[in-house]
Amino acid sequence: MACKYASLKHVLGIAIRPALFFALFFLIIYFWIDTKLIYHGHGSYLDYKIYLPASGSFADFPPYPGKTTEYLAAALARYFYYSWAGALIITSAAWLIYLGTGRVTAAFNFKKARPLRFLPPILILILYAGYHNYLRDCLALVISLLFFYIYTRLSSTNKTRNAALFLLLSALTYCLALPAWLTFVSLCLILELFKRQKPLLVLLILIAALSTPFLANFFIYELPLKDAYATTFSFDPDTDLNTIILRFALIFFPSILALCCILLPFLADRLKAKIAAFTSLQRYFGNYQKSNLRWPLETLFLLVIITSVCFYTTNLFARRYLLINYFAHRRMWQQMLVEAQKLPPRQYSRFICHDVNRALFHIGRLPYDMFSFPQHVAGFLLQTEKTSETDILYELGHINRAEDASFAELVKAGYSPTALKRLALINIVKRQPDAAGTFLNALKKDSLYRKWANDYLERLEKDPLLTDDPEIQYARSVMLTDDNLRRKTAATDDFYLMLLNRNRKNKMAFEYLMARYMLTGQLGKVIKNINRLDDFDYPQVPRHYAEAALLYTAFTGRVVDLKNRKIADRTIQRFADFMSRTTRYNKNNVPLQQQMALTYNNFGDTYYYYYYYLLPRPEPDK
Prior knowledge:
Structural class: mainly alpha
Oligomer: single chain
Distance between the termini: 96 Å
Strand content: under 5%
Number of helices: 32
Radius of gyration: 32 Å
């Protein structure tokens, strides 16, 4: 019976605890970290030039150390597009590292260090909680640990044979998994020096290790000799110090563990001698070792640790920023605005302002709620090659500019599925189905976007102009047709006015023009264009336009002709209250910052609050 119980405990330790750990690991990656946010990170998709779908990009690149691992990581990282697939890939890599780390403890015959196998997966979780991709490092470490295991299995008492085996495996690790090459070298050195105690073999291994980069570059690569050694462990100069330390800890953890396997037995003997002096303490530890609660308590502790570490180390700003970006890309406007409202004003960048304003337009709330969010005059048109900028140009009707930006994105990235999608739609709008087919055929080679591309190819086969597609028909109705106009800068009023001259019912151009006038304090131009409300279906004067009209009347004494439209009584009352307060504060010489704090709760979502306190040196426009 006792034998069966001991066997059961062994099974629990070997199988069930790791199963619980990695099940929780998968769930955290899937539900909390969510790899699709990394894929859509900052508008830059996880597509690497070394791996382009259905192309010979691997062969196009010159050979260099670690190329294979980088290619494999790039190919797998694309499936971060699916949250479940990304979580499965990362969990599998962490599990393989866990197994490899277990082989390190077995090689050094120190079973008490086996619980430390869970630390590398925890480090992986911490790294991914920062919302960057570290799959290349993980795969390199897996290969390094695999080759170390092969070395321990195939090495013999023959020093020359072992040195030759090391040189072969070292060269393979250097060529295939450069980031973890030093890990393989250090593990072999520690094994032969401290465990097997073969100093002559250690000397041979050192010579082989130092010659590996030279030989690999002499026979295979064409790197300068200094680069052959310098690239063995390098970091992006933009990487922050904490990330560098974490990556270093992950990659070299097996080597650190190997040293612990050598040192801990000596420390354990000394610790036992000290504990022996405390009989009660010794009795307590002895009882704990035999307790039936030991396994469940230790397992629970491990699960609590992994959960706590993940939530404590998560970059919440990056997570929310990427959620906003993801929802904007998927046109999930309401969800995007919910996330944007959670950000403090100081964290609003012009990119977030851009996505927020676009979302407000699409749900019909831009002229009503835009000042409920922090605003930036550059937040409407980013003038970058980002996907969101290309989308806004397309939606406004600057089709040619959107085409230019999409080509620029495609050239810069080497491969961009969103640029291909946008170019296909642009050519459909421009009644060029053959050109659209070229981009769609390129896109259907990508398994992630094949369904979308095939759907449009089938529709073009039936109707080359897609005359029944409302989005395409609307884009044609608002698009500019004069190519000479596409070079106009986005910083001028003409950028929007030319769109309204093309189609006066271009609602997006109108609301963005009015937003530009309000953000730059041009009250006169707001009032001059308020008659354009007749071209749209507003039930009444939108709140922010009404606030601008009230402000204009207060400054100039002129009544704005709203053509039978009325301003809501509540809007008028709020404006009167605001003016009364600011007049009183100015008479009492209340400092500006204090005025802002006193009025923010009641009026922070109004245009006149922005005009008075946030617009630099407002000047009434008459």
